[in-house]
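Support request, please re-run this one:
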Amino acid sequence: MHTVYQFVVQHGYSILFGAMFAHQIGLPIPGPLFLLAAGALAAAGKLGINTAFLLATIACVLADWVWYEAGQRRGIKILHFIHGLSRDPEFHNRRAQEIFAKYGPHLLLIAKFVPGLDAVAPPLAGTTRTSRLCFLVFDAVGAGVYSMAYGGIGYVFSHDLDRAAAYVARLGSLLAGLAVATVSIYALGKLVRSHCWRRSAN
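Re-run finished. Output below.
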């Protein structure tokens, strides 16, 4: 964590943007740790918190857009590429498609909190021909929440980033669960409203 912090201290916004883009494009860069460091530096007045969150969000969306366009152009082949090193790529491909078919682009709101899902959600949006506008809106909201969540933890625990990093590791599944619950409640609300509208129309 100290090394990441020093990188952000030395290079500021540029390293934050580059690290978040690289993390989201699929390189082994610890994106959440860079967000923690940015949040801590914002608490110390060395970075602007709004600028840091905005740049991190843009970096994530740009990287996801690359995968979205790959999904549109390459179709299901892109999932085979992503899952190529797994034990059962066909199972993982099928499972990913089933999940996206169930939740649609709303899945982009929580994808970054769920390891594995963050890699397949953008190309899946492309393969299913989700419109670019719809993809960008949902992905931007999801990336913004992701950036603020981890950056906010770094801001609050700026005096002890090692503890913050430990909390992030433990709370990852909790954040994912809360995100899934939020999307599920939203989807349920839409179903209820749609059902009520159909009944009133009849």
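The CA atoms of residues 85 and 92 lie 11 Å apart. The mean pLDDT is 84.
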